[in-house]
Every structure is written in C-alpha cells, then in structure tokens.
Specification:
Structural class: alpha+beta
Distance between the termini: 26 Å
Largest sheet: 10 strands, mixed
Helix content: 25-40%
Oligomer: single chain
Radius of gyration: 25 Å
Strand content: 25-35%
Length: 455
C-alpha cells in the first residue's frame, strides 16, 4: 500500500483548457489524472446527440486527448478517472480502445467501464411502482413533467470506480459520477480505505471538491488580489498530494502560472457547498466546518482535521426536461444619453410586443454597463456612461411567439432612439429551454455495473 499519491486535475468542465491534461502529464510526477466533464445540462445535450447518432453521446474531446497522452500514461503508470462517458459510456470506451490499438498499446492497457447511472429507460417502471422522484426544491412529482423529460441520470459514487481500479483498469470511464468521486476512488483503492471510514472518506471527498473545478483553486477566477495572480496565460492546474491518513496538500507543478494559497483554496471550498455541516455525497457526508488549512510552503496548502458522517440511503438524480423556448436580443446605445436611450428602446419594444398579443412567461430586460450585474445596488447610472447594451430575453411555451420576438429587435435600429450599434450578429436565435429537476432515489433501486476490457 502506498503512503501517498498525487492526483492531478485536468478538466473542470466540458470545454476547459484543451492542453491542461497534457501539461499535467508532462509537467511533473503524478499518479492519477482526474478529468471532470459533466454538468447538469451536459447530460441532456449528450442525450440529444445520441438520439441523432447512436455512436455519439459522450465527450468526444476525450478521445483525441487520450491519443495524445496514452503513451506517456502507460509508460509512467499514470491512471485516469474520467466521467467523459456521458450517456454512451460503452461507445466512449470503445473509441479509446480503438485509439490505444492504433498506438500499438495492445496488451498494455485495461479500460474500466462504469454504467448503471442512466435511468431514462426505467422512468415509467419506477413511477408505476410509486418511486415519485419528487422535485427536491418544489416537492412536485416527476409525473407532472413526464412527457418532456430528456435525460435522467443518477450520481454514482466512488465505489464502482474503486472496483474497476481493483480489477486493474488504468483508464476508468464513467457516466454521471460525482465530481468528488473521481478523486476519492484512487485514494480508496491505493490506501485500502473502508467504505465506512467516514472521516477518511470525507477527507478524500473534500480533496476532490477542491480540485474538481480545475484552475479555480489555483488562481483562476480568484477574487483575492486577482491583479497579482501571476501568469494566468500559463496557469497550472491543481494537484492533490493525498496521504493514507486522510491529510492532503493542494499544490501544482513547478514553473506554472497562477497560485495555490489559503485564500484560493478557501474560495473553491465554498463553491456549491450548501450546508457546511452536511455536504452529502453517495459515499459519505462531509463536514466542511472541520476543515483546517495551513501554509505548507510556496504554492502548497496542507488540509487536515476533516470529519465525516455516514452516507445517506439515497442517491441524487439529475433530470432534465424541455421547458419551452427562449431568445435573447441585444443592441448597443452610445453616448450621449446611452442609458436613457436604452430604457426608451425597451419601452418601445415592450409596447410593440404587447400590441402583437404575444404570450411570454417572462420578459427580462438588462442594461449591461449600467446595472445588469448589481441591479439596484448599482445605484442610478451616470448620464456620462459612454455605452449601454440593451439585452432583452423572452421565454414562452409557444415557439412561434418567441420567433416573432426575434423579428422585432432589428427594426429598433431605424424606428427607435438614435445612436444604435452592435447588431452585426443578426437576428436572435430561438433556443429550446432545458430545465433541471433534482430528485432522490433509494440506493437499493440502483445497481452500478462495472466492466473491464483489455486493449
């Protein structure tokens, strides 16, 4: 059993810096590369992609990335955990398997596949048996939106990934697994942590939480002295140096930009934290109030003292459903009287929409450059503001009404206040609204499936 391992974060979301994983592999010693691709809306996007093409439905960026780094990972025994599988984990694994064979790695690599999170095909059966999958925020039963559901995926924990690692997988590909589980699984595997060692599981969970958003804990999106953050163009992604006793150090490769310090780690700790006493995951309940931080040298923060509680009997379900249509139109009004012109244009537009009898669930107007970010807290904008962007958004169940709205923006250029610019983008596009439905399901209803294939 190892005494410590280095887990490097390479992606904080689908679309993060493409070369970050490469730089993590090439920038210094690591044992694991963790790649987090999935957000709530991502699953519905992938579900639509697979509906159009049965071979799609996963993070396709992952495959060329693996082609680039697999030789080094095999040579240096770096293992990868990634939720890149989306709604087509087998397809993703097959594509990686093919790439590995092209690279001449046959017989040198095993790929773990974790499925069982996608319950889209089981929804009717579950609802018929009385599993309501009620909305955690409103209490409404899922049956009220059944016909509009696009995806339904359970958040799996670290356990299935640990099994894949125990069976020799060097690359573990999952669907909707928790972000934290991608880092916790290597610790449980390497250190032999028991599934009910709540303090250590909580420590591994918090380590995963700190690095799950990539450079957000190593200088990116940093409020603390942001002007002084060095060389963000070369920002280093974080690494968790985890020890068997549950303590860990957050750091990054030497010679990279950004910084790792107590304020940067604190900022990530409070990201999507919820109740600090009860951060609930499938693996445990972590108590963020027990976290202790201390400076461990340049770009090193030691984290210790973490306590945990037993896991709950439920898993969270991420469900997406169609909720109508939207469109966003913008115009820029220039000095003099930029804000006043934008306000007048908004009143004119609303009057025309009302005259047309269009039905909208919501019309939202924002004056970017005046008060869009801070609202009433911004106070009354100065009359000397050089420019203001009028941004009007509408949403409706009726696509035709949203389509009609898109035709009312351009006419304001010649039929509204003077000094308009910024319409080079053309007519706004109508987009489908994908809404989020969080729910809970008893753990006994879900059976994760773990397969390991050879290249």
């Amino acid at each position: 059993m190892k005494k410590s391992i280095r887990i490097a974060a390479g992606q904080g979301f689908w679309g993060d810096l493409p070369d970050a994983p490469v730089r993590q592999v090439e920038g210094g010693p690591i044992d694991y590369l963790m790649l987090d691709y999935l957000a709530e809306v991502t699953m519905s996007i992938m579900q639509k992609q697979r509906a159009r093409d049965p071979k799609a439905g996963y993070a396709k960026d992952f495959v060329p990335l693996m082609k680039q780094i697999l030789p080094a990972c095999v040579e240096r025994k770096i293992r990868v955990t990634a939720n890149a599988g989306g709604v087509n984990v087998e397809g993703c694994a097959s594509a990686v398997q093919e790439v590995a064979r092209e690279l001449g790695l046959s017989g040198q690599l095993r790929i773990g596949i974790v499925t069982g999170d996608d319950i889209m095909a089981r929804l009717d059966e579950l609802l018929n048996r009385g599993v309501e999958l009620s909305n955690m925020d409103t209490g409404a039963p899922l049956s009220t939106e059944r016909e509009r559901i696009q995806s339904a995926n359970v958040y799996l924990g670290a356990g299935p990934m640990v099994e894949a690692l125990n069976r020799g997988a060097q690359i573990v590909i999952t669907g909707r697994a928790t972000d934290t589980g991608l880092s916790l699984a290597p610790m449980m595997h390497e250190f032999g942590w028991a599934a009910d060692d709540w303090n250590k599981l909580a420590a591994g969970t918090i380590a995963g939480h700190i690095i799950e958003c990539g450079a957000q804990c190593s200088g990116g999106n940093c409020q603390f002295n942001w002007r002084r953050v060095p060389d963000l163009a070369n920002v280093g992604f974080p690494i968790a140096e985890a020890s068997a006793d549950g303590t860990f150090v957050i750091t990054k490769h030497e010679g990279t930009g950004g910084w790792v310090n107590i304020p940067s780690v604190k900022e990530q700790l409070v990201y999507e934290m919820g109740d600090p006493h009860d951060y609930v995951t499938p693996d445990c309940v972590a108590d963020f109030t027990t976290v202790r931080l201390e400076d461990d040298g340049p770009n090193r923060v030691r984290v210790f003292g973490i306590e945990g509680k037993p896991a709950t009997e439920f898993l969270k379900v991420s469900i997406s459903y169609s909720a109508g249509f939207k469109a966003v139109g913008t115009l820029v009004y220039s000095w003099p009287d930029a804000y006043e012109k934008a306000q007048a244009a908004d009143k004119i537009l609303r009057a025309r929409l009302d005259r047309l009898g269009l039905e909208f669930d919501q019309i939202l107007t924002e004056f970017v450059g005046a008060n869009a970010t801070h609202g009433p807290l911004a106070g009354e904008p100065s009359p000397d503001i050089p420019e203001v962007q009028l941004r009007v958004s509408v949403r409706s169940e009726k696509r035709n009404d949203v389509e009609r709205f898109t035709k009312e923006i351009a006419p304001l250029v010649l039929t509204g206040p003077p000094g308009v610019t910024g319409f080079a983008g053309g007519r706004p596009k109508v987009e489908e609204i994908v809404a989020y439905w969080p729910a809970l399901i008893p753990k006994g209803e879900i059976t994760p499936v773990v397969d390991v294939i050879d290249v």
